[in-house]
Fold Iron complex transport system ATP-binding protein.
Amino acid sequence: MPLSCSQLSVFYGRRKALDGFKLSMKQGEIRALIGPNGSGKSTALQALAGLLVPAEGEVTIEDVSVANMSRRAIAKKLAFLPQQPSAPDEMTVAQLVRQGRFAHVGLFRSYDRRDEEAIDWALDSTGLSSLADRTLRELSGGERQRAWISAALAQEAGILLLDEPTSFLDIGYQVEVLDLVHRLSRERGVTIIMAIHDINQAIAVSDRISLLEKGELRFDGEPSVLAESGLIEKTFRVKGRFVQVSPDAPPHFDVELTRLNQREA
């Protein structure tokens, strides 16, 4: 398995932010992590990336414990894009994306043709080739998010962890990012785990879904099974139903907005 963990628990002080989380990924699989705010999605991603030391459990990449790997060795296997990454506003898009090659280049080797090709591909895949010379200050929120995704792609890791990758994007770019995620999985065999708020996007693009609540794993399985379980309504405390638009389309969750258009008597 490219990536797996078992009985993963993480504490913030005395609070248990992740409790016995388990996950096993196949190569090229797309896994969505969903759940209410504070459910442990970001914590799970950081623990999988080796950025948090779990109090219990273990994360392995290709059967090797992350605890026994250097940061550079991890970076060659796994790329992680946090929800709110930061970089100097004066940095250009091209400079940011070039940083994605650090695990391969290191401190002493110069960039070769293979590195430049990876950088050009990452920029092109995210529609940023024409903005390569712009500084981050000049970008819109959506463009800046795509620049960070481009940097993660330039890393060419076989595992990609994304924390809310469609945040700050309008609907058009959300679709483009999710399409890119799907192509990376199917065409390049990249294993992808992403925390995402939009339930319908998660169902549409993922092979499996992990539903978290208060740090505990409530569901782990195929989107169609989740749609029939009633857990979405219960976990998110909303009224709604899944609608099957066509036999070939994924189920769509339709929330009942009962308070809209209410008027005072």
Residues 87-156 form one domain. The chain is about 35% helix and 25% strand. The longest strand covers residues 15-25.
